[in-house]
Design goal:
69% of the residues lie in helices and 0% in strands. It is mainly alpha-helical. The radius of gyration is 25 Å and the shape is flat.
C-alpha cells in the first residue's frame, strides 16, 4: 500500500470516530427523564393550535421550488464575478444571455400566477 494514503485513512478514521464517540458520550452523561409535558410540541409558549402534519396548498410548493431554482441559478454568477476581468466583453455577453433567460423564466412564472399567494 502506498504510504501517501496513510494520512487519508487516518483522517477518515478520525472523521468517522469523532461524531460517533461524541454522540455515545453525550448519550451516557445526559439526564434522561422524558415525561408528557417535556415531549409536547412547543409553540412560542402557547399550546399547539393544530396538528403539525397539516396539508399545504400546491401553490406553496410551487413558490418554494421556484425560489430554489432561481436561487441556485444565481449561484452561477459567482464564478463570473471572480473571473470578470479575464472574460472581458465576452463574459458580459454570456451573463447578459444568462440573466435574460432568468428574466424570461420570472415573467413566465408571474404570468402563470405561480408567484401570487391569493
Amino acid at each position: 500500500m502506498p504510504s501517501g494514503y496513510l494520512p487519508i485513512f487516518i483522517f477518515l478514521a478520525i472523521a468517522i470516530l469523532f461524531p460517533v464517540v461524541t454522540i455515545i458520550i453525550c448519550k451516557l452523561i445526559r439526564p434522561s427523564a422524558p415525561f408528557l409535558t417535556k415531549l409536547e410540541a412547543y409553540e412560542c409558549g402557547i399550546k399547539a393550535a393544530s396538528d403539525s402534519r397539516g396539508r399545504y396548498t400546491v401553490r406553496f410548493y410551487i413558490v418554494a421550488i421556484l425560489f430554489v431554482i432561481f436561487d441556485v441559478e444565481t449561484i452561477f454568477l459567482f464564478p463570473w464575478v471572480v473571473r470578470y476581468r479575464e472574460l472581458g466583453w465576452f463574459g458580459v455577453a454570456e451573463v447578459a444571455v444568462f440573466l435574460a433567460i432568468l428574466i424570461v423564466g420570472y415573467i413566465w412564472a408571474y404570468k402563470k400566477g405561480a408567484l401570487e399567494w391569493v
